[in-house]
Design goal:
The chain has one domain: 3-Layer(aba) Sandwich (Rossmann fold). The protein has five helices and six strands; from the N terminus they run E-H-E-E-H-E-H-E-H-H-E. Strand 2 and strand 3 form a beta hairpin. The mean pLDDT is 86.
Length: 146
């Protein structure tokens, strides 16, 4: 059913929790995975990535893609950067460019109201993406491997 699955990955626990769901779907369908990472940068003096550990996050994402490829799941990484708060548009663009059939992302465990107030990337993706978006909530059980 799926040929290309984009996983939105910001290094958070929510993204790490979502990846196994994408992997199981990819294994089931023989799909490839594109891990989309958007570095959010602070604007102005002393600007730079909002995460002090951005280099480590990127290295970890690349390592995860290499591990998936070693397991027989074709996995690539697409990285870009934007100003803080604008990650949803680049993720949607990466999905469009990859001709993705599905976007998989996690949540940060906020309530629905807090998610609206915080303007989460996942919430924006649900409105922007042309593909179905699979949202893996906090507490979701990882799929059985097989």
């Amino acid at each position: 059913m799926f040929k290309t699955i984009v996983v939105a990955h910001d290094g958070s626990e929510g993204a790490k929790r979502a990846l196994p769901f994408a992997v199981e779907l990819a294994k089931r369908d023989g799909a490839r995975i594109v891990i989309a990472h958007v570095e959010e940068d602070i604007v102005g003096k002393g600007g730079g990535p909002i995460h002090a550990t951005e280099d480590e996050i990127q290295a970890d994402i690349r390592r995860q893609a290499e591990e998936l490829s070693a397991q027989g799941v074709e996995a690539t990484v697409e990285m870009t950067s934007v100003m803080v708060g604008g990650a949803a548009h680049p993720i949607a663009s990466i999905a469009d460019d990859a001709d993705a059939d599905l976007i998989v992302c996690g949540t940060r465990g906020h309530s629905a109201v807090a998610g609206l107030l915080l303007g989460s990337v996942t919430q924006r993706l649900l409105h922007l993406a042309r593909q179905p978006v699979l949202v893996v909530p906090e507490g979701a059980s990882p799929p059985a491997t097989g």
